[in-house]
Design brief:
This protein is about 45% helix and about 15% strand. The protein is an alpha/beta fold. The protein folds into four domains: about 130 residues, no CATH class; about 80 residues, no CATH class; about 40 residues, no CATH class; about 200 residues, Collagenase (Catalytic Domain) (3-Layer(aba) Sandwich).
Length: about 475
């Protein structure tokens, strides 16, 4: 997209203005290791160590976005930074005055038109597209134009293979796919959609969205709430200690580490603006010991973190999590019969499964079914627990479960057995619990797994609108248990 005019709306201005100047020698690939929350709130360019240059560039881009004007010596009023070419010219003159000499003219050369043009394109596009995204989240606009199409607007030298499946496809503006799949480079639901990407989006009105069955007639979408201050600090609880040490060495006093969070110095969000993680009296993670390693441990750890963010559990007995080594199941909970009734012995999750984190939550749902939600020693889903009955009744009224029952009535022998398995009360509950945690925690990893499960079988999990009454029933049950 070419920029030849300023785009003076408040959200775009705010997005650019909020970014903290961060000078460093990091390359593009090294910046990719920096937590997304910090990258999104930093004004940086790879391998640029001059804070003066970055501040001058930020100021010039701010002039362009706001349409700031200056009066020339001959009395003419002009835009302070009127175009991409003007920005490049200003920066080249500034660098020359600073004694920076031309070094090849490619992307590694900060004085080159190519490199300065890239800075202009990415930064103004980020500001502009954030502003358009915020406008699109206005409830009136969102429900008149609820979806957008991913389109090519210019040809590029190298096609991005990851974008090919999405070209000309339409998704709701609130669909996590924009962040999780389409914009993997930047991890946000607005453009630009990747380094060197030639795509953009165009609005799709309600009539077309309904024809595409993206939403039902009369269905209202709730805007996504993502503030400018959303990314001012990042959790480092799951970062590799070596990476944390490297970030401290590179950024020095530019970063502040407080507990499990890292933030840019001078960029702290006022305490009143933050939504702190609730303090849990008895978090689920206290009862569960992952006996797994590597990638699977990271998946299980993120599953537990998401659960802890959503609810308490009362007091659970301890239980280990193992790799399901060699089994075909995505995961399972191993029960044992005792003189006290049914008890859970361990949870197993297959490391090579398609969505291990979501599977871990699913199996923990089975654990809660046995150990916490109903009479001791019995499955709440089979014991007639009144609150669980409300959850299952809500699920029975959903389009997904009704569709599964219709498919089961018409299926052949082999498929019939699998569909009946999916329709068991304990399985409906476990899938509902996994989706509840994914949606309520807003965990990108769980949401990605949820989307893959939905793609494999559209009725295996629910779409968000269909699931809403079930989620409310679960929330009511947890509130009565004192878990929220």
């Amino acid at each position: 997209m070419d920029f030849i005019q300023p785009m003076p709306f408040d959200d775009a201005i705010g997005k650019l203005d909020e970014q903290t100047i961060v000078a460093s020698s990091l390359s593009s690939s090294e910046w990719a290791d920096v937590p997304l929350e910090l990258r999104d709130n930093a004004f940086f360019s790879s391998r640029i160590e001059s804070a003066r240059f970055l501040q001058r560039a930020k100021d010039a881009l701010g002039d362009f976005v706001t349409g700031s004007r200056v009066v020339t010596e001959d009395g003419q009023t002009m835009l302070a930074t009127g175009s991409r070419a003007a920005f490049v010219d200003q920066m080249q003159k500034f660098l020359a005055d600073e004694g920076v000499v031309r070094a090849g003219g490619g992307l590694q050369d900060i004085t080159s038109e190519k490199r300065l043009g890239l800075i202009f394109d990415v930064k103004t596009r980020q500001a502009q597209d954030y502003g358009y995204w915020k406008q699109g989240m206005n409830p009136l606009v969102l429900n008149e134009f609820p979806a957008q199409r991913f389109i090519r607007v210019r040809e590029v030298k190298t096609e991005r293979e990851g974008h090919v499946p999405f070209q000309d496809q339409v998704y709701l503006k609130t669909d996590p796919i924009w962040t999780l799949e389409i914009n993997r480079d930047f991890g946000v639901p607005w453009g630009p959609w990747g380094w060197g990407c030639g795509h953009d989006v165009e609005d799709v009105d309600r009539t077309e969205a309904e024809k595409l069955r993206l939403l039902k007639p009369g269905q209202r979408l709730a805007p996504l709430q993502r503030s400018l201050n959303n990314n001012l600090q990042a959790s480092i609880a799951r970062l590799d200690p070596d990476l944390i040490e490297k970030l401290q060495q590179v950024f020095g006093r530019k970063v502040v580490i407080e507990g499990d969070t890292m933030r840019w110095a001078g960029g702290m969000v006022p305490a009143a603006d933050l939504a702190p993680a609730p303090v849990r009296q008895s978090p689920v993670s206290d009862a569960i010991t992952p006996q797994v390693f590597g990638a699977l441990k990271r998946q299980v750890d993120q599953a537990l973190a998401a659960i802890d963010r959503v609810h308490d559990d009362g007091v659970l007995p301890p239980i280990p999590v193992f790799d399901s080594l060699g089994t075909a199941d995505f995961g399972f909970l191993q029960p044992v019969k005792t003189d006290r009734g049914l008890e859970a012995e361990y949870i197993a999750v297959r490391a090579s499964g398609p969505w291990p984190a979501l599977t871990a939550v699913h199996e923990i749902g089975h654990f809660l079914d046995i150990a916490a939600l109903g009479p001791v020693g019995r499955l709440a889903t089979r014991a007639g627990d009144p609150e669980m009955l409300k959850v299952l009744a809500a699920a029975e009224q959903t389009d997904a479960v009704k569709s599964l029952r219709e498919q089961a009535d018409q299926a052949g022998f082999a498929e019939h057995g699998f569909l009946l398995y999916l329709l068991r009360p304990d399985e409906i509950w476990a899938r509902a619990y996994a989706q509840f945690i994914a949606e309520r925690s807003n965990s990108p990893l769980l949401l990605k797994g949820l989307r893959r499960a939905q793609a494999e079988n559209s009725d295996r999990q629910w779409d968000t609108e269909d699931f809403a009454p079930v989620a409310q029933a679960i929330e009511n049950m947890f509130a009565k248990l004192g878990w929220l």
